[in-house]
Amino acid sequence: MSKPLILVVEDDKAVRSLITTTLDTQNYRFRSASTGADAVLEAVSHNPDILLLDLGLPDMDGIEIIRKVRTWSNMPIIVVSARSEDTDKIDALDAGADDYLTKPFSVEELLARLRATVRRLNSVQNVLPVQNAVFQNGELKIDYAAGCAYLKNEELHLTPIEYKLLSVLAKNVGKVLTHRYITKEIWGTSWDNDVASLRVFMGTLRKKIEPSPDSVQYIQTHVGVGYRMLKI
Fold it and tell me: Where is the OmpR/PhoB-type domain (predicted)?
């Protein structure tokens, strides 16, 4: 795809200027908004490819914007927020965000996450259906061609990152995958924040596929190393 259109939603003028100037120097197309109402209007009117979203807006919480956007669009949403608690990240990811970048952030990390997101968009657009592209492990099923996952024949409502994470584990079932390997596969980078985000995503994914919080049926943690999908 050509350079994507990015909607920047940020009420802090200095931060918004930093982001838009960075995008401009990299020849990204962009639009910007400083309120939640304007963000929703921009998203509906211009159908951006990627949303960069601050959570602390003056008129609306960013979580509400994520939920609104998810009613009509699957565009990647990258949260850029000063909220650094795991609960804040979990709330955003559960609402439908794809990535979470904590302020203060480096320009290099922002651009790396954008490049990884663009690669994911390109891979989705270029993927061709493959016959027999179905993974089955116990009561867990992944239909790669359709991009859907099921548990007990019920479709799982996964965010794009959760689906990608589940697919990476499934394609390496029985193998221990390191944090570095997984973050490279998911985001294309190995920043320290990626490992923290990985733990959050893994937590939300487990809530959706494991029978109970204390039960390990599909995904096993190897402390300090990584994760493994168990073969059932």
Answer: 132-231
